[in-house]
Amino acid sequence: MGLDINAARFLLGEKSRGVNFGKTLTLGRQGIYMSGREYASFLNLLEVQGTDSVYADDFYRGIGAHPMLSMDASNYENAAIIHDMNDPLDAKFHSTFDTVIDGGTLEHVFNFPNAIRNCMELIRPGGQLVLMTPWHNFSGHGFYQFSPELIYATLSEANGFCVERMLIVAGGHWYSVKNPSDINQRVEIHANDSILLYVTARKLTARTVYPQWPQQSDYSAAWRSSSDQTINPVQKSTLLSNIADRIPQLENLRSSWRRHKQLRGISPARNAALVRICPSHQIPVMVNPT
């Protein structure tokens, strides 16, 4: 759990975009995951005096997080609030923070649906949940890697939230990630990089989280469209797959096409779900520490 260069750039961008961090809670104490010289360059930009070389509290105060508290399952890093995120929160904590920041905790919590619900309930209406969480090439790092669809489906209007920004860094470039339900296709990626999702979601109103369980958008669309059809798109795809399985040449062709799509259509630069953004506009402070 901690602050690296890209996380710092993202958070500086959010500050420049007008996000008011206010009373902030971080999941776990946020360590510093960059060199001392790199970290000092960020503090200089924020005109903050560094007082700690282990935890990134000075940086968070510099972007406007005040007061700033942390929550953890134990007190080994002197967290202000001790709570296991697998378990429901005491209602006294509901709607008490302007901002909740996850810099690398949720993937380590087995009961993810409850853990992110806790995060959502901690936030006041008008506040924001900020996630810097793994999507791709983090297998074995924690219990989970999180798809864009999962985040969009969870932080939805049905649950009282709206995703304002979802960004990634791939190949040294920043991209904005579209909502699968808006483009009617899955958001997948093929990349050599380890890729995090950088997300800011606004709490629109206080309401019960998960009035209905989220469903994957392409299946929901298929179910809706199948209401007046004998064979729905999912069944049709299964039938075609069964035919292909019985004809080796078709199976080989299908495998080649899938590989072609993976390399040509799902790589970051060719992905319809990803929009390369201009750092000087979307991430206003792109620091190149020296």
Features:
Rossmann fold, 9-stranded mixed beta sheet, 2 domains, 11 strands, about 25% strand, 10 helices, two-stranded parallel sheet, globular, about 290 residues, alpha/beta, about 35% helix
Architecture overview:
The chain has 10 helices and 11 strands. The protein has 290 residues and is an alpha/beta fold. The strands form 2 sheets. The chain has a 9-stranded mixed β-sheet with strand order 5-4-2-6-7-10-8-9-11, sandwiched between helices. A two-stranded parallel sheet has the order 1-3. Strand 6, helix 4 and strand 7 (123-136) form a beta-alpha-beta unit.
Top-tier CATH class of the largest domain:
Alpha Beta
Number of helices, where a helix is a run of at least 4 consecutive DSSP H or I residues: 10
Largest sheet: 9 strands, mixed
For the biggest β-sheet, the strand order reads: 5-4-2-6-7-10-8-9-11
First-residue to last-residue Cα separation: 24 Å
CATH topology of the largest domain: Rossmann fold
SSE string, helices as H and strands as E: EHEEHHEEEHEHEEHEHHHEH
* Inertia-based shape: globular
- State the share of residues found in helices, binned by percent: 25-40%
Layout of strands and helices, then pairs:
Layout: E1 2-3, H1 5-16, E2 22-27, E3 31-32, H2 36-46, H3 57-62, E4 65-72, E5 81-82, E6 97-102, H4 112-122, E7 123-136, H5 148-154, E8 161-170, E9 173-177, H6 180-183, E10 195-203, H7 217-225, H8 233-245, H9 248-265, E11 274-276, H10 279-282
